[in-house]
Each structure stands twice: as C-alpha cells, then as structure tokens.
Amino acid sequence: MISVDSAIVRARRGSQLSTLLNFALIAVIILIPFAVNQFRLPIDPIIALSVVGAIWVVLLLRSLRGSRLVADSPSLIASGQYDTAEQRIDTALRSFSIFRAVKLLGLHHLAALRHAQNRWPDVVKLCRALLAQKRVANQGIARSTQLMLADSLLELDDMPGVASSLSHLYTQRLSLGEALSLMLAQLDYESRLGAWDNMMRGANTKATLAELMPTNKSARAQALLALAARRTGRNDWESWLRRRVELLVDPQELCVRRPILTELWLA
C-alpha cells in the first residue's frame, strides 16, 4: 500500500524537477544562438537546437507513459479494482515526467482511491497537500478536492474544517455533479449542527435535485431531509421522503453510516 507521506513527498519532488527541467530547456534554446554569436563557439546553432529538441522529444515520450497510467486510474477506482488502480498510481508517481500535472493528478487520484476505501485521515492529508499547491488552486481539480476533503472531515466529525471547505466551495462556479455533492455535504453538515429549519428551506427543490444523485447518495440526502421534516413537525414531508428512501435502499444499511437517521425507522 502506498504511504501517503511518501506519495506527497514524491509528487512534490517530481513537480519541482519537471518545472526546473522545463525552464532549463527553454533557457538553453534561448541562449544557444546568443552564446554562439557572442563567444564565437564552433557549434552550428541549428544542430545544437536539433539536439535539444531531440532530448525534449525523448523526455516527452517517457512522460506520456505516466500520463496514461494516471488517466486510467478513475475508471479502475469506479469499477472497484482498487489494487490495480493503486499499482498504476504508484508507478505514475515514481516515474519521471516533464509534466507537472501528472504528479498532481496522481495525488488527486490517490485521494479518490483512499476516499473509496473509506480511509478518511489519508484523504484529508492528501487533499490538504494538493490544495496547498498554487497550480491546483487555479484548476478544476481544486473543487473536487475540496468536496472530498469536506466529505472526509464530516466522517471525522471535524465541523470547523467542514465549514471552511464548504465556504470555499460556495465561492466557486460548480458543475451540476459538484453542486449536488455540495448540497449533500451541506445537508450532512447542518444535521450535525441541528440546523433543521435551514435544511427544510427549499426542500422541494432539494428533493428534486436528490433524484439526480447516485442511488446511495440520493437516499442519504432524502433521509436527512426526512429527519429535518420530523424535527420541524412536517409529518407529511417526513412520511413522503421516508417512503422514497425505502424504495432506494435498505434503511438499516443507511443507518449504519449515519446513526442519527435511526429515529426515522424506530417504529
């Protein structure tokens, strides 16, 4: 199993090395014609630039292998092939690449793998390491990283950390899938705080959006809304939402992960 700390160190070193190497190649390309003319070196600039170009092509071809390994990881995680996904991520993090994004994506996919394995402390450490990178903060993976971080902090009952992650997400322009994940995280967070009235605001819209989620997430969102309806005296909403949940999943399985929902099925 990949050590989270060693993966973070490896990714940082790989990113720094690729940045330095790219700058060095650009500097060499710029300086060769100047150096030949200034110091009258017995070197043909065209040949020298061709050699540098050939080196860059060789490094590019080596880097593409790591890119392919990283690109395959999400589908392997989604299909439950965790061991294969981990091997590919480990190989991608260990291999050389002139693309800095390959190392960062490798860390992101490792966080997704640990999230699928319910290894919440590892996810938190990986996500925070990613979000500390300026390059990640300006890219789309920052939003999915924040969502994974918020969900993992919920599992660890770190409410201040969840609040910080959610506040960052509300300043971003989200895709539909990201907005749905944010809604579920917000419902989960508010249920921990007992903010039942806030949960019931726009309940009809939230229940409709929950239908667009994957089955398990949809059931959890609607169960949380049913609990909020119960706590606010909306018995009609509670009964309706509870029946919808029962059509999707076994309530006992849902209550294992969220014991607070047990009171919906106590009778």
Structure report:
There is one protein chain. The chain has 267 residues and is mainly α. It has a domain at 181-267. 79% of the residues lie in helices and 0% in strands. The chain has 14 helices and no strands. It has helices spanning 4-39, 45-78, 82-94, 100-116, 120-131, 134-137, 141-155, 159-169, 176-193, 196-200, 203-210, 215-231, 235-248, 251-257. The protein is elongated, with a radius of gyration of 25 Å.
Write the layout of secondary structure elements.
Elements: H1 4-39, H2 45-78, H3 82-94, H4 100-116, H5 120-131, H6 134-137, H7 141-155, H8 159-169, H9 176-193, H10 196-200, H11 203-210, H12 215-231, H13 235-248, H14 251-257
Key traits:
79% helix; 14 helices; mainly alpha; 267 residues
Characterize this entry briefly:
This protein has helices spanning 4-39, 45-78, 82-94, 100-116, 120-131, 134-137, 141-155, 159-169, 176-193, 196-200, 203-210, 215-231, 235-248, 251-257. The protein is mainly α and 267 residues long. The relative contact order is 0.07.
| Share in β-strands | under 5%
Contiguous helical run count: 14
Radius of gyration: 25 Å
What's the average pLDDT?
Answer: 86
Order of helices and strands: HHHHHHHHHHHHHH
Distance between the termini: 44 Å
